[in-house]
Design a protein that fits this description.
Number of strands: 3
Distance between the termini: 18 Å
Helix content: 25-40%
Largest sheet: 3 strands, antiparallel
Structural class: alpha+beta
Length: 65
């Protein structure tokens, strides 16, 4: 069997935790901060864990974790 390739866009955007969950950057933080509330900007710091439905899709793009 040939090796499976990892989607290069996915390896730049997602990491797997030790328990197998998918970690990603917060959505909505790239631009337009002036129109966001301070609370929204504050709560979007760091990373977040994807929902199970989204994580299932991303895990197909990362065959070897």
């Amino acid at each position: 069997m040939p090796k499976l390739k990892t989607k290069s866009g996915a390896k730049k955007r997602f990491k797997l935790t030790a328990s197998g969950k998918v970690r990603s950057g917060q959505a909505g933080k790239q631009h337009g901060m002036i129109k966001r509330t301070n609370k929204q900007i504050r709560n979007q710091r760091g990373t977040t864990i994807l929902s199970d439905q989204d994580a299932r899709i991303v895990k197909k793009f990362l065959p070897y974790g």
